[in-house]
């Protein structure tokens, strides 16, 4: 029984280690996805910002009103990317996407392994419960003391 308990504890530990690895990958994917989205946002509205610089001063306010949403999104993306650079991060959208793809593939593999482990854990847990029931029955069974008179 002791070995069975140790085996279950080991399986549980490996299962939760794998779960932690998956959660860590999910968090990193979310971070990288956000970076990629901000990069796309920056590129999408960069031309509007360049147009603003070319607009004559008397038409500038009208242009800003007409394109306020795009300019706000561009500014937000610029601030986000600048903060990354200021913190020593490189702006590498292709590398971000490559890492996302690698993490997603690893996460998928780990998820399949975790599902398999979950089935194994259920089976071993059923085995443990059955063994404990048999042990209790054996212990509680009245011992044969010979024929009664």
Structure description:
- It is rod-shaped and about 105 Å long.
- With 149 residues, it is mainly α.
- It has helices spanning 2-54, 57-66, 68-86, 93-140.
- The chain is built from four helices and no strands.
Main sheet attributes: strand count, strand direction, barrel closure: none
3D shape: rod-shaped
- End-to-end Cα distance: 38 Å
> Radius of gyration, rounded?
31 Å
- Helix/strand-derived category reads mainly alpha
Q: List the total number of helices.
A: 4
Give the topology string: H per helix, E per strand.
Answer: HHHH
**Using DSSP, what is the number of strands?**
0
Uncertain runs are none
Mean of residue pLDDT values: 91
Estimate the helix proportion, in percent: over 70%
Strand content: under 5%
Topology, element by element:
Elements: H1 2-54, H2 57-66, H3 68-86, H4 93-140
Helix pairs in contact: 1-3, 1-4
Features:
149 residues; mainly alpha; rod-shaped
Short synopsis of the structure:
87% of the residues lie in helices and 0% in strands. It has 149 residues and is mostly helical.
């Amino acid at each position: 029984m002791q070995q069975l308990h140790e085996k279950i504890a080991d399986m549980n530990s490996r299962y939760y280690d794998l779960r932690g690895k998956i959660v860590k990958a999910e968090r990193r994917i979310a971070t990288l996805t956000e970076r990629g989205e901000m990069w796309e946002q920056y590129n999408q509205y960069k031309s509007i910002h360049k147009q603003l610089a070319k607009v004559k001063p008397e038409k500038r306010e009208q242009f800003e009103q007409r394109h306020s949403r795009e300019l706000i999104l561009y500014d937000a993306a610029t601030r986000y990317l600048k903060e990354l650079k200021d913190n020593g991060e490189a702006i590498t959208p292709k590398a971000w996407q490559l890492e996302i793809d690698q993490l997603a593939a690893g996460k998928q593999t780990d998820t399949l392994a975790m599902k398999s482990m979950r089935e194994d854990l259920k089976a071993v847990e059923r085995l443990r419960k059955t063994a404990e029931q048999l042990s209790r029955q054996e212990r509680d069974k009245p011992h044969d003391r010979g024929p009664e008179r």
